[in-house]
Amino acid sequence: MDIAMIGTGYVGLVSGTCFAESGNQVTCVDIDQRKIDRLNQGEIPIYEPGLSELVVRNATAGRLQFTTDLTSAVKTARVVYLAVGTPQGDDGSADLSALWSVVDSIAPHITEDVVIVTKSTVPVGTNAGIYERLQEINGKKYHVASNPEFLKEGAAINDFMYPDRVVVGVRDEQVAEVLKELYSPFLRTDKPFLAMSPESAELTKYVANALLATKISFINEMANLCEALSGDINDVRRGIGHDQRIGFAFLFPGVGYGGSCFPKDVRALSSMSKNHNLPPTILDAVDEINHRQKHVLIERIESHFENNLAGKTFALWGLAFKPKTDDIREAPALVMIDRLLEQGAVVRVFDPEAMDNVREIYGDKIQYANRSIDALKGADVLAINTEWDVFRHPDFEEVKAMMSEPLIFDGRNLYDTEQMRKLGFTYYSIGRPAVVNEVPVD
Ligand SMILES: NC(=O)c1ccc[n+]([C@@H]2O[C@H](COP(=O)([O-])OP(=O)(O)OC[C@H]3O[C@@H](n4cnc5c(N)ncnc54)[C@H](O)[C@@H]3O)[C@@H](O)[C@H]2O)c1
């Protein structure tokens, strides 16, 4: 099938590449000339495990192309996918300006048998709006479908190739059949292809993200309570997780969720609720808890130092909003960096993949280490914001030797508190009792 993928970001590039991998002819389009130039030179503009190899293989085979020429890409396409960004607007609702601009631009160049599919996360009613807008412009009836994407950055290829389910929002059976055929290579293990109305499909994406965000904010609120009541959230987590009605997934306490999806999607769903005079009580609480949680670790640091951070050196491990991505949108680490800089601290950072993105924001206001261990040289504090595997088993004796004092603030509960005590660290984590520096035990 000939596919035009409009928007070549995390979602468009991964989806386009995976569709090419299953034998389709895919043209990825973007307005960012630099991004397209890099892709045409075989350079991948984002970090996503396994993506580079797939892009190169399919581009070399002639199944995957990159261009800024929207018109020629859509002229020959059987399916036109919309995968542009839908960031948060000023009032919390989704900003659809990129999407509408694409719809207006493609309208004069598409034929009536094309299927236009929205992969971007869009408010309920957008697909109906696209149908109407195209009809207004061209006077023709187009096939418009919703196909929300559930991939996770860091595991995006696997999620796309082996989805738990595929959801499509369609008005007629024929369109469902086209999309079913397109997805059939990815659904061989009998995973469901769920066809529903466009409105239900649009909602499904928001509801899924809102529920996952709710789980995170819930466990974070409980973690803070554990700390206040001398409990240990790890024990509580195990105590509840073995209950099959509850389970363990997405119940890891930490310094809050970030990224390009959960924060904006929770707010956009809240905005949709308010527009229909329904109070988004849970959604707003989830957002509020998450906002506060991003400040929990830095406030603990401030209280440890009695608000005197000026001149102290902070080593920060982990900048991306989660491991295995270079995405720093709404990352908790940025909140910490800002507050440390405001108070005159020296900030030295390390992340396996997100350094370039952070450098674009902070330039020479902070220092950049080449290796995690280098960040620790003479540091007064090690603070951890992202649970990259590489941080899980450092050589603690070396860590201690590098630092001016053995002091760790761990926003992801990577280490065993008893081990930290034995090693002689002062160790603060989330929802677990603080370990106050003691003489090391052999
Ligand atoms: N990132 C994720 O994990 C994820 C997962 C599921 C769904 N989504 C949704 O998918 C959509 C895209 O997200 P993303 O993370 O890929 O965003 P992104 O910011 O990485 O990519 C968006 C791309 O669209 C391009 N673009 C903007 N205007 C354009 C135009 N007029 N013509 C052509 N290209 C244009 C941008 O240059 C950019 O490359 C969003 O709605 C998001 O909510 C994202």
Structural summary, described in words:
Helices cover 42% and strands 13% of the residues. With 442 residues, the protein is an alpha/beta fold. The chain has 2 domains: 2-196, NAD(P)-binding Rossmann-like Domain (Rossmann fold, 3-Layer(aba) Sandwich); 197-442, Rossmann fold, CATH 3.40.50. The strands form 3 sheets. The protein has a 6-stranded parallel β-sheet, sandwiched between helices. Strands 11-10-9-12-13-14 form a 6-stranded parallel β-sheet, with helices on both faces. A two-stranded parallel ribbon has the order 7-8. Helix 5 links the parallel strand 4 and strand 5. Helix 11 packs across helix 12 (281-304). The longest helix is centred in the middle third of the chain and has 31 residues, at 198-228. It is globular and about 70 Å long. The model has no long low-confidence stretch (mean pLDDT 96). The chain binds nicotinamide-adenine-dinucleotide. The site of nicotinamide-adenine-dinucleotide has 26 residues, from helix 1 and helix 5.
